[in-house]
Design brief:
The complex is a heterodimer.
Chain A: H1 5-27, H2 29-33, H3 50-57, H4 59-92, H5 96-111, H6 114-128, H7 134-158, H8 162-170, H9 175-203, H10 207-212, H11 220-230, H12 235-263
Helix pairs in contact in A: 3-12, 4-7, 4-9, 4-11, 5-7, 7-9, 8-9, 9-12
Chain B: E1 12-20, E2 25-34, E3 39-43, H1 50-58, E4 65-70, E5 73-74, E6 86-88, H2 100-110, H3 115-128, H4 144-156, E7 162-166, H5 174-191, E8 194-199, H6 202-208, E9 211-216, E10 219-224, H7 226-231, H8 236-241, E11 246-253, E12 260-263, E13 266-268, E14 279-284, E15 290-292, E16 303-314, E17 318-324, E18 330-336, E19 348-353, E20 359-362
Parallel strand pairs in B: 3-8, 3-9, 6-7, 7-8
Antiparallel strand pairs in B: 1-2, 1-4, 4-5, 9-10, 11-12, 11-14, 12-13, 14-20, 15-19, 16-17, 16-19, 17-18
Helix pairs in contact in B: 2-3, 2-4, 3-4
Classes of the chains: A mainly alpha, B alpha+beta.
């Protein structure tokens, strides 16, 4: 069905409006980070790079940034391994109803409010003496990241032709070889996008992290939260802009590489 | 051309195999012995259990009861990847992320064949299927027929004990199918291995097979050469599935070798039947029947039944008649051109045959009209 010019232009205006509402609050941060004043004023009166300079020269900011990247990389690896294994297992499980229930359980961290999860994790970590530890951050973030891997790998497996795995078996490949050489290359786009989501989930996680941080180990979002409540220093805008840039680049690269694979 | 892929055939023994699912029985007490080097076809309509039987042999499905032996060695508890059988699937199942050569190398890598030897074997396999020089292409760059040839090469390159094929030509168009049928037959003669082929196309089965096993409702109805199945069908189902036939059904009287039945006022006789059933179905092939305008035109000793002509089709080599029998069912007659008789649709006529022809079978379906 062809729409009239009027309908089409109205549709564009509406879409533009929605996009603006979605993006504007985030985009405001970008000019804020280039202000020359020591306060968060919008729009900024003058321009400078001093807050970026401050970010890269302050060891507290840099260590928080380093922690975030390191935790996110390990979480991405761990969550991808666990989530992929879980998806494959769930798909092969012949008792479908049990598999469905278990999958719902695996996806629960997406639905359960982060604050509730945070309290639970805090109580356990307090006993296990894992508060403010690297392993603690990795474990807590992995719980949040696994559902994203499960969702994207399950979707990839649904589109994967299982007959290829059967063929591999007939050609003499055991299950492990079949998975590595046939199934994994087939579902790779889903695994990669799962890994990217896992990275981003960990990288900008703040609620859980506030509960389990310590003065010795905190991640970038935690440091930002502390900064905005204490001293409203525009360094936080610089940090936010860079987080935004990093996550946007990662997701864009992921989406683009997936589209390329699909077009092969 | 002598191929490196040539080898001795393997014997496959399927004994009393049953596969039961929660609500249905897919394979019901099937026994079949495939002789070494034989080309056997499992033929039947969809859902008859032929593919399930193949999957049981390949190890893709676990059997409920019975046993499967390959060269006297029990394999039904051996996982698929250790059975050493080559399988060709209807949908090719080539690995899309590997080149043709990598696909064919896959089974060799699993067997840790030395690299140099792999290369020779891959080239030999590609030559056998007529695709020399295609090694560097990806499956998506090939046509359906070429992909299926690669699938053949991949399934044969590791010298499997037997080659199992599940409707390998089902996804191809008619011309290509006929070409590949001849090629499969040539490859079978060349490599001399045991081939088990699944199809629902009886013509394909006739072209390819040494023997055919006819499946129906999870059971084997009959196993035999195509001539045996055509000339001496063991059941009405087999008679119908293997080519055209005309069926006269009526209660059998005077049981014994000198059986007879009363078909709408005509006494039918025929060759002695093994087990004379209560309700009979006398099956005659189109070339065993003749048709004439009047009863007087038929030879004296012939069995004669009055019919109405529905169609008279000129085929060049002869005529094919479609007739309406007194019970409303359809009869089919093929006659040589020399016997043209000018019958037209709507004419009354007489169909007749020698009482030495025909096979008396049990009428298994009482309501059907063909």
């Amino acid at each position: 069905m062809k729409h009239s010019v009027l309908t089409r232009s109205l549709l564009w205006v509406y879409a533009g409006l929605v996009a603006f509402v979605l993006i504007a609050p985030t985009a405001v941060v970008i000019p804020l980070s280039f202000t020359d004043k020591a306060s968060l004023n919008f729009p900024p009166a003058g321009w400078s790079l001093r807050w970026y300079e401050n970010f890269f020269q302050d060891p507290a900011w840099m260590s928080a940034f380093g922690n975030s990247v390191l935790v996110a990389v390990v979480v991405a690896a761990l969550a991808t391994a666990v989530g992929t294994a879980a998806s494959v297992g769930l798909q092969k499980w012949t008792r479908r109803r049990a598999a469905k229930s278990l999958q719902a359980l695996l996806l629960a961290p997406i639905v359960v409010p982060a604050i509730i999860l945070a309290i639970g994790v805090y109580a356990i970590f307090l006993q296990a003496q894992m508060l403010g530890t690297f392993a603690g951050f990795v474990l807590a973030h992995t719980v949040l990241a696994v559902p994203f891997v499960v969702v994207s790998v399950t979707a990839a497996l649904a589109g994967f032709d299982q007959r290829l795995a059967t063929a591999a078996a007939s050609l003499g490949a055991n299950r492990w070889t079949t998975f590595l050489k046939v199934t994994l290359p087939g579902i790779l786009p889903g695994v990669v996008s799962g890994a990217l989501f896992a990275f981003v989930t960990s990288f900008d996680e703040v609620v859980l992290s506030i509960f389990i941080k310590s003065p010795y180990l905190e991640t970038l979002p935690v440091k930002m939260y502390a900064s905005v409540t204490r001293d409203t220093d525009p360094t936080i805008a610089a940090a936010a802009t860079m987080i935004m840039l990093l996550t946007t680049v990662i997701i864009a690269v992921g989406l683009l590489s997936m589209r390329r694979r699909k077009n092969v | 051309m002598s191929s490196q892929l040539a080898g001795a055939g393997t014997r496959i023994d399927i004994q009393n195999v049953t596969k039961r699912y929660a609500k249905s029985v897919a394979v019901d007490d099937v026994s079949l012995t495939v002789e070494p080097g034989e080309f056997i076809t499992l033929l039947g309509p969809s859902g008859s259990g032929k593919t399930t039987t193949l999957n049981l042999v390949a190890g893709f499905t676990d059997l409920t009861s019975g046993s499967i032996e390959i060269d006297g060695q029990r394999v039904d508890n051996v996982p698929a990847h250790k059975r050493g059988l080559g399988v060709v699937f209807q949908h090719y199942a080539l690995f899309p992320h590997m080149t043709v050569a990598e696909n064919i190398a896959f089974p060799l890598q699993q067997r840790r064949t030395p690299k140099a030897e792999q290369k020779t074997l891959i080239e030999d396999a590609l030559r056998t299927v007529g695709l020399s020089g295609y090694g560097d292409r990806y499956p998506r760059q090939l046509s359906g027929g070429q992909q299926q040839r690669v699938a053949f090469a991949r399934a044969m390159v590791f010298s499997p004990r037997a080659l199992l094929m599940d409707e390998p030509l089902g996804a191809l168009d008619k011309n290509l199918r006929e070409k590949l049928q001849l090629e499969i037959k040539r490859i079978h003669q060349e490599v001399g291995r045991t081939f088990v082929f699944v199809t629902h196309d009886q013509e394909e089965a006739l072209i390819l097979s040494d023997r055919i096993a006819i499946f129906n409702n999870g059971r084997i109805e009959q196993v035999g050469t195509s001539a045996e199945l055509y000339e001496r069908p063991a059941s009405l189902f087999v008679a119908r599935f293997m080519g055209e036939s005309t069926v006269f059904r009526a209660p059998v009287e005077a049981a014994g070798p000198d059986w007879s039945m009363d078909f709408h006022g005509t006494r039918l006789r025929g060759p002695a039947a093994g087990q004379v059933p209560g309700r009979g179905a006398l099956v005659l092939r189109p070339e065993q029947l003749r048709v004439a305008p009047r009863a007087g035109d038929a030879p004296g000793g012939a069995v004669k039944v009055p019919v109405k002509v529905v169609q008279n089709i000129y085929l060049g080599s002869g005529h094919k008649y479609e007739l309406r029998l007194p019970d409303g069912s359809t009869g089919i007659v093929r006659t040589p051109l020399a016997e043209s008789n000018g019958l037209r649709p709507g004419d009354d006529a007489v169909v007749y045959w020698s009482d030495r022809d025909g096979v008396l079978l049990e009428d298994s379906d009482l309501v059907s009209t063909t």
